[in-house]
Design brief:
Elements (H helix, E strand, L loop, with lengths): L1 H18 L6 H8 L3 H13 L4 E4 L4 E4 L12 H8 L5
Helix pairs in contact: 2-3
């Protein structure tokens, strides 16, 4: 069970750095996350399989999202879920 949680936490951290356009190049990102480049690429590929439009922008040397997306993993109440889906609900 801890393995799954660790993978989710890693994806959340990568997502955060991508949103900030602050991943650096793959070597720097792997070092920052204290994982191997192989594990980094496996995790990014897993995120892509989950429909994350991740690309590498060579001009800013950072992974970026090709389009705006959201990432959320976990459980929540139906009320919170429906409230998040409709931004016009007060």
């Amino acid at each position: 069970m801890n393995v799954i949680i660790k993978h989710i936490e890693l994806m959340e951290r990568i997502d955060q750095l991508i949103r900030l356009q602050a991943t650096g190049n793959p070597v720097e990102l792997a070092a920052r996350l204290r994982i191997s480049r192989t594990k980094l690429y496996r995790t990014i590929n897993m995120m892509k399989k989950l429909n994350a439009p991740i690309e590498y922008d060579i001009s800013i040397q950072s992974f970026v999202y090709a389009e705006e997306v959201g990432f959320k993993f976990g459980f929540f109440t139906e009320e919170k879920y429906s409230h998040e889906l409709n931004p016009f609900v007060g």
